[in-house]
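task queued by scheduler; priority normal; single chain, no ligands, no partner chains; default sampling; output format set to C-alpha coordinates
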Amino acid sequence: NCGLMDSSVSVRLRKRRKLASRKLEQQPPLPGVLNLDILAIVMMFLPPSDLFNMSLTCKEFRSRVTTSMVVLSVLNETKKDTHAKTMLGHLGPLMKGNSIHCPSPLRLLFLLGTNFCEICHCVIRKLFHESETASTYGILVCSKQCLMRKYTLAFRKSWVRYYRNAQKYNMITRHPRILARPHWREEMLNMRFYLARRHWYSQKGEPIGALVTLQDVDAIAKEDAPDILSYLDRELNVPPAEKYREFIDACKLVEEHWELEAERAV
Protein backbone atom coordinates (compact mmCIF):
# COMPACT_ATOMS: atom_id res chain seq x y z
CA ASN A 1 0.00 0.00 0.00
CA CYS A 2 2.81 2.38 0.84
CA GLY A 3 4.38 1.74 -2.57
CA LEU A 4 1.11 2.51 -4.34
CA MET A 5 0.72 5.73 -2.34
CA ASP A 6 4.25 6.86 -3.23
CA SER A 7 3.73 6.14 -6.93
CA SER A 8 0.42 8.05 -6.99
CA VAL A 9 2.03 11.05 -5.29
CA SER A 10 4.93 11.05 -7.76
CA VAL A 11 2.47 10.96 -10.68
CA ARG A 12 0.60 13.95 -9.27
CA LEU A 13 3.84 15.90 -8.83
CA ARG A 14 4.84 15.19 -12.43
CA LYS A 15 1.47 16.43 -13.69
CA ARG A 16 1.76 19.63 -11.65
CA ARG A 17 5.27 20.27 -12.99
CA LYS A 18 4.11 19.79 -16.57
CA LEU A 19 1.22 22.20 -16.06
CA ALA A 20 3.49 24.77 -14.48
CA SER A 21 6.02 24.51 -17.31
CA ARG A 22 3.24 24.90 -19.93
CA LYS A 23 1.98 28.06 -18.20
CA LEU A 24 5.50 29.52 -18.22
CA GLU A 25 5.89 28.74 -21.91
CA GLN A 26 2.56 30.37 -22.74
CA GLN A 27 3.43 33.60 -20.95
CA PRO A 28 4.96 36.26 -23.22
CA PRO A 29 8.53 37.35 -22.35
CA LEU A 30 8.82 40.59 -20.41
CA PRO A 31 10.41 43.28 -22.63
CA GLY A 32 13.62 44.88 -21.44
CA VAL A 33 14.16 42.66 -18.41
CA LEU A 34 17.44 41.09 -19.56
CA ASN A 35 19.24 42.77 -22.43
CA LEU A 36 22.20 40.51 -23.20
CA ASP A 37 23.95 43.11 -25.33
CA ILE A 38 23.98 45.57 -22.44
CA LEU A 39 25.14 42.84 -20.06
CA ALA A 40 28.05 42.05 -22.39
CA ILE A 41 29.14 45.69 -22.08
CA VAL A 42 28.77 45.55 -18.29
CA MET A 43 30.94 42.43 -18.19
CA MET A 44 33.78 44.37 -19.81
CA PHE A 45 34.03 46.63 -16.74
CA LEU A 46 34.23 43.84 -14.15
CA PRO A 47 37.45 42.62 -12.47
CA PRO A 48 38.41 38.97 -13.07
CA SER A 49 36.97 37.63 -9.81
CA ASP A 50 33.55 39.24 -10.41
CA LEU A 51 33.62 38.22 -14.06
CA PHE A 52 34.29 34.63 -13.02
CA ASN A 53 31.35 34.65 -10.58
CA MET A 54 29.10 36.09 -13.28
CA SER A 55 30.16 33.41 -15.76
CA LEU A 56 28.96 30.74 -13.31
CA THR A 57 25.41 32.08 -13.55
CA CYS A 58 24.30 30.55 -16.85
CA LYS A 59 25.50 29.25 -20.21
CA GLU A 60 24.59 32.48 -21.99
CA PHE A 61 26.99 34.48 -19.81
CA ARG A 62 29.75 31.92 -20.32
CA SER A 63 29.31 32.09 -24.08
CA ARG A 64 29.81 35.88 -23.93
CA VAL A 65 33.24 35.61 -22.30
CA THR A 66 36.16 36.11 -24.71
CA THR A 67 39.93 36.00 -24.28
CA SER A 68 40.36 39.73 -24.85
CA MET A 69 37.58 40.47 -22.33
CA VAL A 70 39.35 38.40 -19.66
CA VAL A 71 42.75 39.95 -20.31
CA LEU A 72 41.39 43.51 -20.33
CA SER A 73 39.44 42.83 -17.12
CA VAL A 74 42.75 43.07 -15.27
CA LEU A 75 42.64 46.83 -15.90
CA ASN A 76 39.51 47.00 -13.73
CA GLU A 77 41.44 45.94 -10.65
CA THR A 78 41.56 48.76 -8.10
CA LYS A 79 44.55 47.45 -6.12
CA LYS A 80 48.11 47.66 -7.41
CA ASP A 81 49.41 44.15 -6.67
CA THR A 82 46.80 41.48 -7.23
CA HIS A 83 46.86 37.83 -8.20
CA ALA A 84 45.31 38.55 -11.61
CA LYS A 85 48.01 41.07 -12.55
CA THR A 86 50.80 38.76 -11.38
CA MET A 87 49.37 35.77 -13.21
CA LEU A 88 48.93 37.75 -16.41
CA GLY A 89 52.55 38.88 -16.19
CA HIS A 90 53.65 35.24 -15.89
CA LEU A 91 51.47 33.97 -18.74
CA GLY A 92 52.53 36.71 -21.17
CA PRO A 93 56.05 35.41 -22.05
CA LEU A 94 54.82 31.81 -22.25
CA MET A 95 52.02 32.72 -24.62
CA LYS A 96 54.30 34.87 -26.77
CA GLY A 97 56.69 31.93 -27.09
CA ASN A 98 53.81 29.54 -27.91
CA SER A 99 55.24 27.12 -25.35
CA ILE A 100 52.04 26.23 -23.46
CA HIS A 101 48.57 25.17 -24.47
CA CYS A 102 46.47 28.21 -25.33
CA PRO A 103 43.85 28.46 -22.55
CA SER A 104 40.21 28.87 -23.44
CA PRO A 105 38.49 32.09 -22.25
CA LEU A 106 36.88 30.27 -19.31
CA ARG A 107 40.11 28.60 -18.21
CA LEU A 108 41.97 31.89 -18.53
CA LEU A 109 39.30 33.41 -16.32
CA PHE A 110 39.82 30.52 -13.91
CA LEU A 111 43.56 31.27 -13.77
CA LEU A 112 43.09 34.98 -13.12
CA GLY A 113 40.08 34.94 -10.83
CA THR A 114 40.24 31.83 -8.62
CA ASN A 115 42.50 30.16 -6.07
CA PHE A 116 42.24 26.44 -6.83
CA CYS A 117 45.21 24.22 -7.65
CA GLU A 118 44.88 22.54 -11.06
CA ILE A 119 46.96 19.53 -9.99
CA CYS A 120 45.67 18.46 -6.57
CA HIS A 121 42.45 20.57 -6.69
CA CYS A 122 42.99 22.13 -3.26
CA VAL A 123 42.40 25.73 -2.17
CA ILE A 124 45.52 27.89 -2.40
CA ARG A 125 45.93 29.96 0.73
CA LYS A 126 48.96 32.08 -0.20
CA LEU A 127 47.73 32.79 -3.69
CA PHE A 128 49.80 35.84 -4.59
CA HIS A 129 53.05 34.33 -3.36
CA GLU A 130 52.61 30.87 -4.86
CA SER A 131 51.40 32.13 -8.24
CA GLU A 132 55.07 32.54 -9.15
CA THR A 133 55.04 28.84 -10.08
CA ALA A 134 52.82 29.71 -13.02
CA SER A 135 55.76 31.48 -14.66
CA THR A 136 57.31 28.08 -15.37
CA TYR A 137 54.53 25.97 -16.91
CA GLY A 138 51.44 28.20 -17.18
CA ILE A 139 49.33 26.39 -14.60
CA LEU A 140 47.90 27.37 -11.23
CA VAL A 141 49.67 25.33 -8.54
CA CYS A 142 49.37 25.43 -4.76
CA SER A 143 53.11 25.12 -4.03
CA LYS A 144 56.50 24.50 -5.58
CA GLN A 145 56.55 21.07 -3.97
CA CYS A 146 53.33 20.14 -5.78
CA LEU A 147 54.83 21.40 -9.03
CA MET A 148 58.05 19.41 -8.67
CA ARG A 149 56.64 16.17 -7.24
CA LYS A 150 53.36 15.77 -9.15
CA TYR A 151 53.53 17.79 -12.35
CA THR A 152 57.16 17.50 -13.46
CA LEU A 153 59.77 14.79 -13.89
CA ALA A 154 63.52 15.31 -13.70
CA PHE A 155 65.86 14.60 -16.59
CA ARG A 156 69.37 14.17 -15.23
CA LYS A 157 72.43 15.01 -17.29
CA SER A 158 74.25 12.13 -15.65
CA TRP A 159 72.14 9.61 -17.55
CA VAL A 160 73.77 7.52 -20.28
CA ARG A 161 71.31 8.52 -22.98
CA TYR A 162 72.21 12.16 -22.42
CA TYR A 163 75.95 11.51 -22.80
CA ARG A 164 75.39 9.57 -26.02
CA ASN A 165 73.36 12.37 -27.60
CA ALA A 166 74.12 15.47 -25.54
CA GLN A 167 74.21 17.91 -28.47
CA LYS A 168 70.73 17.00 -29.69
CA TYR A 169 69.26 16.99 -26.19
CA ASN A 170 70.67 20.47 -25.55
CA MET A 171 69.22 21.72 -28.83
CA ILE A 172 65.79 20.28 -27.96
CA THR A 173 65.63 21.62 -24.42
CA ARG A 174 66.63 25.13 -25.57
CA HIS A 175 63.84 25.33 -28.13
CA PRO A 176 61.38 28.15 -27.27
CA ARG A 177 58.30 25.88 -27.56
CA ILE A 178 59.71 23.29 -25.15
CA LEU A 179 59.60 24.03 -21.41
CA ALA A 180 62.64 22.38 -19.83
CA ARG A 181 63.40 24.28 -16.63
CA PRO A 182 66.19 23.76 -14.08
CA HIS A 183 65.39 23.21 -10.43
CA TRP A 184 64.73 26.48 -8.61
CA ARG A 185 67.61 25.69 -6.24
CA GLU A 186 70.02 24.40 -8.92
CA GLU A 187 69.93 27.09 -11.60
CA MET A 188 73.67 27.68 -11.33
CA LEU A 189 74.66 24.00 -11.25
CA ASN A 190 72.56 23.04 -14.30
CA MET A 191 72.80 19.31 -13.53
CA ARG A 192 69.19 18.43 -14.37
CA PHE A 193 66.11 19.98 -15.87
CA TYR A 194 62.42 19.36 -15.35
CA LEU A 195 59.74 18.64 -17.93
CA ALA A 196 56.08 17.77 -17.68
CA ARG A 197 55.51 14.24 -16.38
CA ARG A 198 52.63 13.62 -18.80
CA HIS A 199 50.08 15.54 -20.83
CA TRP A 200 47.77 17.16 -18.31
CA TYR A 201 44.11 18.04 -18.75
CA SER A 202 41.70 20.15 -16.76
CA GLN A 203 38.55 18.76 -15.16
CA LYS A 204 36.67 19.67 -18.34
CA GLY A 205 39.11 17.81 -20.58
CA GLU A 206 41.05 20.84 -21.84
CA PRO A 207 44.83 20.37 -22.30
CA ILE A 208 46.80 22.56 -19.91
CA GLY A 209 50.41 23.41 -19.19
CA ALA A 210 53.44 22.54 -21.29
CA LEU A 211 53.17 21.21 -24.82
CA VAL A 212 56.00 18.67 -24.54
CA THR A 213 56.66 15.97 -21.94
CA LEU A 214 59.83 14.05 -21.06
CA GLN A 215 58.74 11.12 -23.26
CA ASP A 216 58.29 13.48 -26.19
CA VAL A 217 61.83 14.83 -25.73
CA ASP A 218 63.23 11.28 -25.82
CA ALA A 219 61.19 10.58 -28.96
CA ILE A 220 62.51 13.72 -30.70
CA ALA A 221 66.10 12.83 -29.75
CA LYS A 222 66.00 9.56 -31.69
CA GLU A 223 67.99 9.31 -34.92
CA ASP A 224 65.03 8.62 -37.20
CA ALA A 225 62.78 11.22 -35.52
CA PRO A 226 61.56 14.30 -37.44
CA ASP A 227 62.58 17.82 -36.50
CA ILE A 228 61.00 19.56 -33.51
CA LEU A 229 58.33 21.57 -35.31
CA SER A 230 57.27 18.63 -37.46
CA TYR A 231 56.94 16.44 -34.38
CA LEU A 232 54.85 19.08 -32.62
CA ASP A 233 52.50 19.41 -35.58
CA ARG A 234 52.15 15.74 -36.54
CA GLU A 235 52.41 13.83 -33.27
CA LEU A 236 51.17 16.31 -30.67
CA ASN A 237 48.85 18.41 -32.84
CA VAL A 238 49.77 21.60 -30.97
CA PRO A 239 47.70 24.76 -31.51
CA PRO A 240 48.83 27.04 -34.35
CA ALA A 241 50.40 30.44 -33.75
CA GLU A 242 47.21 32.24 -34.83
CA LYS A 243 45.39 30.89 -31.78
CA TYR A 244 47.66 32.88 -29.47
CA ARG A 245 47.14 36.15 -31.35
CA GLU A 246 44.06 37.39 -29.45
CA PHE A 247 45.77 36.99 -26.09
CA ILE A 248 49.00 38.63 -27.27
CA ASP A 249 47.20 41.64 -28.76
CA ALA A 250 45.10 42.18 -25.62
CA CYS A 251 48.18 41.76 -23.45
CA LYS A 252 49.96 44.49 -25.40
CA LEU A 253 47.12 46.91 -24.64
CA VAL A 254 47.38 46.08 -20.94
CA GLU A 255 51.16 46.57 -20.95
CA GLU A 256 50.81 49.94 -22.71
CA HIS A 257 48.25 51.02 -20.13
CA TRP A 258 50.58 50.02 -17.29
CA GLU A 259 53.44 51.96 -18.90
CA LEU A 260 51.28 55.09 -19.09
CA GLU A 261 50.31 54.71 -15.45
CA ALA A 262 53.98 54.35 -14.49
CA GLU A 263 54.89 57.52 -16.42
CA ARG A 264 52.09 59.45 -14.74
CA ALA A 265 53.21 58.25 -11.32
CA VAL A 266 56.71 59.58 -11.97
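post-processing summary
- The first helix runs from residue 2 to 26.
- The CA atoms of residues 136 and 212 lie 13 Å apart.
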